[in-house]
Design a protein that fits this description.
The chain is α/β, with parallel strands linked by helices. 44% of the residues lie in helices and 15% in strands. It has two domains: 55 residues; 135 residues, 2-Layer Sandwich (Nucleotidyltransferase, domain 5), CATH 3.30.420. The chain contains nine helices and five strands; from the N terminus they run αααααβββαβαβαα. It holds the Pfam family rve_2.
Length: 255
């Protein structure tokens, strides 16, 4: 055994004293706690779409009874080389507008009940896009309804609105951009039938609909850009799971 060890140490150019020092080494209590924390950090990070940075992971640990400082979590995450997934540059294809500017009715209505709607693009595979239509209510920080389709058309928006109306009390205002899907007769007729006022963002000003734009941005950088989908059905299921997590389990700070 000694002869075999000598051959190995010689091949590695490792002094025998270094080997025996390593063999006798016992981690300190502080190191053992750090290692236990690293296991918990990795589990929380992976179970939350790798979306949490050190502040949220610290919050989760404290809620579970592990009293630890945020600076320590930051240090351990750096040692593990993990972090909250960052944004990727993405140029959204333009929205087709064939309608004159309609009014923004919610600009001076901070206390009104508002549904915010938008359509965003998800990449199924390189060069192939599908369309996510969502309705978001900022007051409750919830995605109330969503539909995914292969075509960006008015029926996708109508289906999303109907889905929201089935499960939620109608709002005072429905706010969207000036895209042709939202200014279509089908959508306008549906909103009028339910006596919901339609409010519009100013053309070229996506920040007028900031809350749902922020949600879609978050969904892309924390989930869609990091996921490979096998087919359309897989994309629908995984997106549904992400939105369920966003509504129910995610620790919210703003959106």
């Amino acid at each position: 055994m000694r002869h075999r060890l000598s051959i190995i140490l010689s091949a590695l150019k490792l002094p025998r004293s270094t080997y025996y020092h390593w063999k006798r080494y016992q981690p300190s209590q502080h190191e053992r706690v750090d290692n236990q924390l690293k296991e918990k950090i990795k589990l929380i990070w992976e179970n939350n779409y790798r979306a949490y940075g050190y502040p949220r992971i610290t919050m989760v640990l404290r809620k579970s009874g592990t009293c630890v400082g945020s600076k320590r979590i930051l240090r351990l995450m750096r040692e593990m080389e993990i972090h909250s997934l960052m944004n990727r540059r993405f140029k959204k294809p333009g929205t087709h507008v064939d309608h004159s500017q309609c009014p923004n009715l919610i600009k001076h209505q901070p206390n009104a009940r508002i549904w915010r709607a938008d359509i965003t693009y998800l990449e199924l595979r390189p060069g192939t896009w599908v369309y996510l239509s969502s309705i978001y209510e900022p007051k409750v920080h919830q995605v109330l309804a969503f539909k995914i389709g292969r075509q960006m058309e008015a029926t996708l928006v109508v289906e999303t609105i109907n889905q929201a109306l089935e499960c939620h009390q109608k709002p005072q205002y429905f706010h969207s951009d000036m895209g042709s899907q939202y200014t279509s007769n089908e959508v306008e007729t549906l909103l009028e039938r339910h006596q919901i006022s339609h409010s519009y963002s100013k053309q070229g000003y996506p920040y007028d609909n900031g809350p749902i734009e922020a949600f879609h941005s978050l969904l892309k950088r924390k989930f869609a850009f990091q996921t490979t989908f096998s087919n359309f059905e897989d994309l629908v299921i995984r997106t549904s799971n992400y939105i369920s997590w966003f509504n129910s389990d995610r620790i919210r700070t703003s959106v």
